[in-house]
Amino acid sequence: MGTALIYDEEMTKYKLLWVDPACKIEVPERLTVSYEALVRSGLSDRCVSIPPREATDAEILLAHSEEYLEAVKKTPYMTLEDLKEFTLQYGDVYFHPNIYHCAKLAAGSALQLVDSVMTGKVRNGIALVRPPGHHSMRSAANGFCVFNNVAIAAQYAKQKHGVKRVLIVDWDIHHGQGVQYCFEDDPRFNSSYSLRTCSRLNRLNILLIIFILVFYSVLYYSWHRYEHQKFWPNLRESDYDSVGKGNGAGFNVNVPWNKVGMENSDYLSIFCHVLLPVAYEFCPDLVLVCAGFDSAIGDPEGEMCATPDIFAHLTHLLMNLAGGKLCAVLEGGYNLTSLPQSVCQTVQTLLGDPLPQPAGLRSPCKSALESLQCVRSAHRRYWSFLKHAANQPSTDISTKRIKLANEEEGKTEMAVEERAAEIKEWPEPPERPSPPVRCASLLPEDVACPDGLKLFSSSKDLHPLLASKLQNGADDQDALITVSRLYAMIEKMLTNEIGSGLVLISDISAAMMGALQDLPSDLVDRVLVVCVGKEKDLNYLTTDGKMLFVQISDEDKEKEKNKYFIPVSLKKGCSDTAGFIQAVLGLLLPLAYEYDPTLVLLVRTPGSGVDDSMWQQLIGLLLGFAKGHTLVLMQTNEKVHVGPTASALLGRPAPPLLELQTLDQEDGEALERLRERLQTDWKMLQTTSEGTE
Ligand code: X5A
Ligand code: ZN
Question: Do 482 and 514 form a contact (C-beta atoms < 8 A)?
Answer without folding.
Answer: yes
